[in-house]
């Protein structure tokens, strides 16, 4: 079975601080995908990034960066110079091929980020 | 390009009733998955439809069912509603079968009283 752990339930920072959201996953599959989603108060899950298990290259997109380390089964997300608009709940998710030959997302419990002005 | 559309946005139902939720995927996407989000259990996978057939199912009772139409729109039905069914129901749209990406709608917030 697969599992995603986001140990940080809630993080509060002041605007312009850097913040890292941790994600640790468990799976026996060698081929899998990792995702990060942002959920603002409106409820929609906004896709941020997808990473496959064969690509350990870190990625940067503007103020966002992701660090994928297979050796520690972690896929951490860093926001540089946080802004109030970054306030949301962030979910890490794992997609593996199930017995049906199909994939489904297994989500972590989420980290609520509050950025204070 | 329009995103994933879920209707209605909010619903209030009474215990024992049934409810139908609707999801229109992104144009050209043929896979629709449904997830339930509750404070206690978090986000959990309900089922996935592709080409009008249920392809995958999560660990939910038979009261939860769904279907997909030829235009890829999907409906989810919950019968004999229980208080614990109160949740945000999210629909995800994917291009193909392998769910390498999933784009979500804003969800339907169901309250059972």
Features:
heterodimer, A: six-stranded mixed β-sheet, 12 strands, B: 113 residues, mainly beta, seven-stranded mixed β-sheet, four-stranded antiparallel β-sheet, 11 strands
Would you identify the regions of chain B where 5 or more consecutive residues have pLDDT less than 50?
A: none
- Percentage of helical residues of chain B? under 10%
Fraction of residues in β-strands of chain A:
over 45%
The count of DSSP E runs of length 2 or more, i.e. the number of strands of chain A, is: 12
Structural class, judged by helices and strands of chain A?
mainly beta
Tally of strands of chain B: 11
**Major sheet description of chain B:** 7 strands, mixed
Fraction in beta strands of chain B: over 45%
N to C succession of SSEs of chain A: EEEEEEEEEEEE
Secondary-structure element order of chain B, as H and E? EEEEEEEEEEE
Count of helical stretches of chain B = 0
Oligomerization: heterodimer
Mean pLDDT of chain B: 93
Largest interface: A-B, 26 and 27 residues
